[in-house]
Amino acid sequence: MLALGAVKRNTGYALVGLALLALGLWRVQAIREPVPPFRETRFLMDTAVTVQVAAADSEEARKWAEEAFREIGRLEGLMGEGGTIPLSQGWTRMTEEVAYVLRRSQHFAELTGGAFDVTVGPLSRLWGFVGGTPHLPDLAKVRRVLASVGYRGLEVLGDSVKGEGKGMLLDLGGAAKGYAVDRAVEVLEGAGVRGGLVEAGGDLRFFGKKADGQPWRIALAHPRRPGKLIYLKDVGLPAVATSGDYQRFFWKGGRRYHHILDPHTGYPARGAVSATAWARTTLDADILSTAFFVLGPEEGIALAERLSDVEGLVIYERGGKLFARCSSGLIGKVDLRGTGISLETGEAP
């Protein structure tokens, strides 16, 4: 991984998926000129969270950024440590916000045939990606734990939930950060802030304009070349999230094992190396980036095409080479020149 100082600066872009050596995480890092009045990064929800506020007065900006961080901290307490919540076989009442995230998660679980599934918690723990040290588990244990995974075994009625089987564990890691970013942005907008950007572990949402009156610009980090950027034109959607096999992983027997687990197999999904989703809310983008990754380029982009106010880009590897497939709304807005990534059609998007 690269240290922050090794990354090219003054690009005028916010980066999705930049490696930060000090935290060992992949995140969004705004590196632009001129510098906004206030920008701060803290560690919340098990990841790096950055808030940028475009305001004329730096003290005013600091005050509202603090409110945004406070809101994310509040949600961290609601969503559970590491985003996991034990699920009982009896009805359990949740806060309205947790119930909302679960209802939205179930909505997309149905749409994706379970490619996104919040009941994947037992697998996340078995692999050590939640509450442990990442490792390759025994096949027999994976098969046993799979019996406790499946979105159809989760019932959500209003603000109450229950599980049909024993040992079910909700993993909100693919949704909680996105919702927290949305809420932080709503806090800033409600305060009358003219522009801002909030990012948490690869989930980003912006509004208004930068301090110099220019629009926010987003670039994606290359999934295999640290420091290399994939430049984007304005997509027309304020929220974006990326899921990648380079974010949290370990090597075993010369193979990369990452944290994006396929709920159907119990093993890391192998159809993509990176998946990015654009949507109206970061919650939806967060969920969909995971779903696109698990579904792979063909099914993932087909799903993006069926949904309104959604765009998708999936980068995948075949025969040691990188390829990409994108939804129609991204044609002409993604610059793959010099990245070593070929659009599946052989044309530049």
What's a concise summary of this model?
The protein is of the alpha+beta class. It contains 6 helices and 21 strands. Strands 3-4-10-11-14-17-18-19-21 form a 9-stranded mixed beta sheet. A 5-stranded mixed beta sheet has the order 2-1-12-13-20, with no helix packed on it.
Task: Tell me what the structure shows.
- The chain has three domains: 1-79 and 175-216, no CATH class; 81-172, T-fold; 237-349, ApbE-like domains (T-fold, Roll), CATH 3.10.520.
- The chain contains six helices and 21 strands.
- It has helices at residues 58-79, 96-111, 121-126, 139-146, 176-190, 282-306, and strands at 13-20, 25-31, 38-44, 47-54, 84-86, 92-93, 154-157, 160-163, 169-171, 195-200, 203-208, 218-221, 229-232, 239-244, 249-252, 255-258, 274-279, 311-318, 321-326, 334-335, 341-343.
- Strands 3-4-10-11-14-17-18-19-21 form a nine-stranded mixed beta sheet. A five-stranded mixed beta sheet has the order 2-1-12-13-20, with no helix packed on it. The chain has a three-stranded antiparallel beta sheet with strand order 6-8-7, covered by helices on one side.
- A hairpin with a 7-residue loop joins strand 12 and strand 13.
- The protein is globular and about 60 Å long.
- It starts with 12 loop residues before the first strand and ends in a 6-residue tail after the last strand.
